[in-house]
Amino acid sequence: MGKNFLISGNDEFAIKDMARNIVSGLCGENFEDDPGLEIIRGDDESKKMNDILTELIASVRTPPFLSPNKIIWLRHFAYFDKLQSSSEDPLTAELLKIIKDGIPDDVTLILDGPGIDRRKAFYKSCGKKAEVHFMEKADLGDKNFLVNQFNRIKDFFAENKKSINDAAAHYLSETIGSDSARLKTELEKLICYTAFSKNPVSIDDCREVCSRTPEALSWAFADALIDRNTAAALDAINVLMEQLRAGKSTKNSELAILSFAAKRFQEIIKTKKAASELNFSMKKGANFFYSLPQAVKDEYPDNFLVSMHPFRAFKLCEAAMKFSDIETASAINLLLETNRKLVSGAENPRLALEQLAISITRKKKRAPAA
Question: Average of pLDDT values for 219-246?
Answer without folding.
Answer: 88
